């Protein structure tokens, strides 16, 4: 992952190996995701204790050990003993003694650490976020709200599944999952959503294999409600990816005709339904003008709203990326707007809450095209657009807008 791989893909590849026991998968995921979440803090800790950098494998061992000592309910002496024994087997007694000394010093001194007074530096270290991102959020939200945001983005994520209403009810799925020892709670807004405490057991479960359930956050599920496709509508999912939202739309609006487009045909081809698949880029749309009744633009974005589930994002992104994504999103709207019929609806969504990717895109687009902004979720909210700020909603950061073409 340090070389650019993604958390979920890396862990899934590891778990596909036959010698990885089912009983340790949850622990492996907890430690790996936790280390990535907190590695900025751990590097700050090590910078206080080391005169020079250490080789990668030793640094990773220290990260893993520091995470277990700091954030897991494990006896400190067990963690130290395991780390030292591993280092001895892999690297010899000298390295083992070094690891032992660093970990024991951390245990002795961690309650006496002093942090910088400047909010940017303090929050960046304590909550393990890049300084540029903390500085940015302090500008938008202030110290107190930014600290709440950083805190919730560092929490263990809440995983959500979506039920295909044509195959089972929430009560039936809940009963089956709880019989397997999986804790559940109902979604906040949608009957199709169930929050679960673990994902790994579901990946080999009958419900998942038969597509009774799909892994999909509740904020993402709200997009289908905003699309509100009707019988006979021609609907384009312009940035379909793996087709998760397209599949949901087909389940909730079986009388509509769907086209799913993405730049990556291999990824798009993983969808298993009978949607019309098109390889193409929305900024150079291949479709004729005034054709679709509804267009969904679930646009590529900085993904700042899903850092809780994908902590690697905060270390990968640069501030310039947010502006770059905003420009691309505007280009998508410019191109796809011509494919929309008069009176048609375009739903724009991103898993981000950054102004340049949300309201800012609409403000720029309004200077070029005429549209009516509609409440995308009138049965749930009274706002012009749906904006989920994690520190307020407890859910992923997300934005949904619905534009009608006059």
Protein model, in words:
With 406 residues, the protein is α/β, with parallel strands linked by helices. The protein has 16 helices and 12 strands. Strands 5, 6, 7, 8, 9, 10, 11 and 12 form an 8-stranded mixed sheet that branches. A 4-stranded antiparallel sheet has the order 2-3-1-4. Helix 4 runs antiparallel to helix 5 and helix 6 crosses helix 7. It is globular, with a radius of gyration of 23 Å. The relative contact order is 0.08.
> Ends: how far apart?
47 Å
Count of runs of 4 or more consecutive helical residues: 16
Mean pLDDT: 93
Helical proportion, percent range: 40-55%
Unreliably modeled segments: none
Strand content: 5-15%
> Main sheet?
8 strands, mixed
Strand-and-helix sequence, N→C? HHHHHHHEHEEHEHEHEHEEHHEHEEHE
Let me know the number of strands: 12
Instruction: Report the radius of gyration as a whole number of Å.
Output: 23 Å
Alpha-beta content class: alpha/beta
Q: What shape does the CA trace take?
A: globular
Produce a short descriptive summary.
With 406 residues, the chain is α/β, with parallel strands linked by helices.
Draw up the topology in text.
Elements: H1 7-15, H2 22-49, H3 56-71, H4 76-91, H5 93-109, H6 119-127, H7 131-153, E1 159-163, H8 170-179, E2 184-186, E3 193-196, H9 206-209, E4 213-215, H10 218-227, E5 234-237, H11 244-252, E6 257-262, H12 265-268, E7 276-279, E8 292-298, H13 312-316, H14 319-337, E9 340-350, H15 359-366, E10 372-374, E11 386-388, H16 390-393, E12 398-404
Helix pairs in contact: 2-3, 2-6, 3-4, 3-5, 4-5, 6-7, 10-11, 14-15
């Amino acid at each position: 992952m340090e070389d650019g791989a993604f958390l979920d893909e890396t862990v899934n590849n590891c778990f596909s190996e036959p010698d990885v026991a089912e009983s340790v998968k949850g622990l492996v995921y907890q430690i790996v995701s936790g280390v990535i979440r907190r590695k900025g803090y751990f590097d700050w800790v090590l910078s206080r204790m080391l005169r020079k950098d250490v080789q990668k494998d030793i640094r990773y061992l220290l990260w893993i050990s520091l995470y277990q000592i700091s954030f897991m309910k494990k006896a400190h002496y067990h963690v130290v003993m395991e780390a030292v024994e591993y280092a001895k087997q892999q690297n010899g007694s000298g390295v083992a003694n070094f690891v032992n000394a660093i970990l024991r010093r951390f245990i002795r001194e961690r309650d006496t650490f002093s942090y910088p007074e400047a909010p940017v530096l303090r929050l960046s270290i304590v909550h393990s976020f890049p300084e540029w991102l903390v500085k940015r959020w302090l500008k938008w939200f202030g110290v107190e709200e930014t600290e709440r945001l950083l805190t919730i983005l560092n929490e263990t994520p809440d995983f959500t599944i979506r039920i295909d209403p044509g195959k089972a009810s929430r009560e039936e799925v809940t009963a089956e999952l709880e019989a397997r020892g999986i804790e559940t709670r109902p979604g906040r807004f949608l009957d199709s959503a169930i929050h679960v405490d673990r994902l790994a057991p579901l990946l080999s479960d009958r419900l998942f294999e038969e597509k009774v359930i799909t892994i999909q956050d509740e904020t993402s599920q709200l997009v289908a409600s905003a699309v509100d496709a009707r019988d006979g509508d021609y609907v384009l999912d312009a940035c379909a990816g793996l087709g998760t939202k397209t599949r949901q739309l087909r389940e909730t609006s079986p009388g509509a005709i769907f086209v799913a487009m993405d730049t990556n045909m291999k990824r798009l081809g993983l969808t298993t339904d009978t949607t019309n698949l098109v390889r193409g880029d929305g900024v150079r749309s291949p479709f004729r003008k005034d054709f679709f009744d509804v267009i969904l633009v679930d646009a590529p974005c900085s993904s700042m709203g899903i850092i809780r589930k994908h902590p690697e994002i905060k270390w990968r992104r640069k501030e310039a990326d947010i502006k770059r994504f905003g420009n691309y999103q505007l280009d998508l709207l410019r191109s796809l707007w011509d494919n929309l019929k008069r009176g048609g609806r375009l739903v724009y969504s991103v898993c981000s809450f950054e102004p340049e990717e949300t309201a800012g895109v609409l403000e720029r687009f309004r200077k070029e095209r005429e549209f009516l902004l509609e409440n995308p979720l009138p049965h749930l909210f009274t706002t012009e657009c749906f904006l989920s700020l994690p520190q307020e909603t407890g859910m992923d950061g997300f934005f949904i807008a619905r534009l009608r073409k006059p």
